[in-house]
Amino acid sequence: MTKAQVTLNAEQIEELNQKLSHMRHEINNQLSLVVAAIELISLKPELRQKMIDTVTQQPPKITAEIVKFSKEFEQALGIMR
Amino acid sequence: MASRHKILLLDDDEQILELYQELLQNLPSQPEVTVSSSGARAIALLETEPFTLLITDLRMPKMDGLQVLAIVRRKYPELRLIVLTGVLDEEYRSRAYALGVDLFWQKPSSSEEFQFFKDCIESFLGRETAEEGGFRGMQSKSLVDLIQLECLSQSSTVLRITQGGMEGKIWLQDGQITDAVAGDLNGEAAFKEILSWKSGSFELLPADPTHARMIAVSSQGLLLDSAQALDEGRGPYADTPGAAGTTPAPSALAPLVRFEGVDFLLTVPPSGDGERESWGLENTKEVSAWVWDTQKRLRELGDKLGVGGLAQVSGFGLNRHWAFANSDQKGLLCAGFRRAVPKDKVDQTMKLMFGKWIS
Question: What is the ipTM, given to two decimal places?
Answer without folding.
Answer: 0.80
